[in-house]
Amino acid sequence: MKKNAPTAKTNTRNRVPRFSAHQRDILISALACIGMVFGAFYWIQHVEEPRALNQRIDTVTSNIADHQRGIVRDVIDQLGDRVNKQTSNPELLTALEQGSISDDSLFAQSLRRAFPEALDTKIIYIGKQGIADERSETQRLRNNIEIDMLRKSIEKKGLVIEAYKHDKQWLISFVGTASKHGAVYVTFNAQYFERMLKSLAGNAVSIELIQTYKTRRDSVIKPSAISYPEAMQSRPLPVPGWTLQVYPQDITVQSLSSDSTLLWLICVLCVALIAASHAIFFVRSYQIPAAPKASPKAPAPKTPETPSLEQALAKKLAASRQGNFAKRDNFPAPDSAPPLPELNDPETKSSSKAPSLAVNCFRAYDIRGIADTELNDNTCFAIGRAVGSEALSRSQTKLLLGRDGRLSSPRIHDALIKGLLSTGIDVTDLGLLATPMLHYACQDLNIGNAIMITGSHNPGHYNGMKISLEFKSLSSRDIQALRHRIDAQEFETGKGRLDSDSIEQRYIDRVISDVVIAQTLKIVIDAGNGATSNIAPALFEELGCEVIPLFCEVDGNFPNHAPDPTVEDNLSALKAAVAEHSADIGIAFDGDGDRVAVVTAEGRSPAADQLLMVLATDMVARNPGAEILFDIKCSRLLSELIVDAGGRPTMWKCGHSFMKQKMADTGALLGGEFSGHIFYKERWYGFDDGMYTAARLLEILTLSGRTMDEALDSQRTLISSPEILIPVADERKFALVETFAENQNFADAALINIDGLRVEFRQGWGLIRASNTGPAITMRFEAESEASLARIQNDFKDLLLRIDPTLADSL
Question: What is the pTM of this model?
Answer without folding.
Answer: 0.70
